[in-house]
Amino acid sequence: HKFLIEGEDVRKAVHLLSYGQRARIALARTILTGANFLILDEPINHLDIPSRDAFYHALTQYAGTVLLVAHDRDFVQRFPDRIWKIVGEKVIRDAE
């Protein structure tokens, strides 16, 4: 339920779920395997607002390290401890 898969959806075959639901299931499975380092590329692109909030909450509860690429400014301001920007050919640590 933390990944917003509830009700009849828990009994559906994965291929019948929405892309966002499948993405949340993939993240849940990865976390349940004991992974302590996640590399995520635009993880919230196909998620609706409630799903984004659930995803954000799940990541804040995650004890491991997360390296992610995101262009969503709101998400970038809410989540990371450190931000690096790619400017031209340089990687710059954000002063914020």
Features:
96 residues, two-stranded parallel ribbon, 34% helix, 4 strands, 3 helices, alpha+beta, elongated, two-stranded antiparallel ribbon
Report what the structure shows:
This protein has 96 residues and is α+β, with helices and mostly antiparallel strands. It has three helices and four strands, in the order αβαβαββ. A two-stranded parallel sheet has the order 1-2. A hairpin with a 2-residue loop joins strand 3 and strand 4 (90-93). The N and C termini lie far apart (34 Å).
Radius of gyration: 15 Å
Give the structural class. Answer: alpha+beta
**Care to count the β-strands?**
4
Query: Count of DSSP helices?
Result: 3
Summarize the main sheet: 2 strands, parallel
Largest sheet, spatial ordering of strands:
1-2
Name the helicity range: 25-40%
* Element-level helix/strand string: HEHEHEE
Q: What is the rounded distance between the termini?
A: 34 Å
Mean pLDDT: 80
Beta-strand portion reads 15-25%
Low-confidence regions: none
